[in-house]
Each structure stands twice: as C-alpha cells, then as structure tokens.
Design goal:
The chain is mainly alpha-helical. The chain contains two helices and no strands. It is elongated.
C-alpha cells in the first residue's frame, strides 16, 4: 500500500508476529556459540608461541627471534578478538533472552486481559 503521507515509503497492514519459543532457541544457540568462541580463545592463549618463555630459548629458533615475537603478538591479537567476539555474542544472546521474557510476559498479560473482558460480555 502506498504511503498516505507522501514520504515515499510503504505502509504494511500486516502484523508482526513474534514466536517466543523460536526466539528463545535462537538466544540459547547464540549463547552456546559464544561459549565455543570463548573456549577457542582460551585454547589459543594456552598454546602461545614465539615469546621465548618456554625455558629453552626462542621457540622459532635463535635466528628467528623477531619473527617468533611477531607470531606471538599476532596470537595475542587473535585471543583478544576471540574474547571480544565471544563476549559480544553472549551479550546479544542475553538481550534476546530478556526480550523473549518480556514478549512472553506481555503476551500472557494480554491474554489474561482478553479472557477477563470476554468473560464480562
């Protein structure tokens, strides 16, 4: 349907439906994915390479100390990125989970009010 205000958009007469079960499942799946990413960050950080902290000298070899240090710096960045990605995924999942609860509560309250009104007719 054309926009009656003349602003060039469209107007939808369809209702937006929210399936809270699916939304909740998505939040749980996202939370699990964020956990996997977080675990990956831990695994990378537990197997660092190149800083010479193994007690036996530079892991990359004595002729490649600077290259080993560069690899180590790169791995530190990977760990930070994975940690941030996991934290962001968890935060989004938490927000979606909270929205699911609000939608469910709103729907339950609306159903209750509808029942009350129809019983009074």
């Amino acid at each position: 349907m054309p926009d009656p205000t003349g602003r060039g958009g469209t107007v939808s007469s369809q209702n937006l439906g929210v399936q809270t079960g699916e939304l909740g499942k998505f939040a749980n799946d996202l939370r699990l994915s964020a956990g996997v990413v977080g675990t990956s960050a831990q695994r990378v950080s537990q197997h660092m390479f190149g800083d010479g902290s193994n007690g036996h000298g530079p892991e990359a070899g004595r002729n490649y100390v600077s290259q080993g240090a560069a690899i180590h710096t790169g791995l530190e960045n990977v760990v930070k990125w994975l940690e941030n990605w996991g934290a962001a995924g968890k935060a989004v999942a938490d927000s979606i989970g909270a929205a699911t609860v609000v939608y469910s509560d709103t729907d339950a309250e609306a159903a209750k009010k509808t029942r009350q009104q129809t019983q009074n007719v």
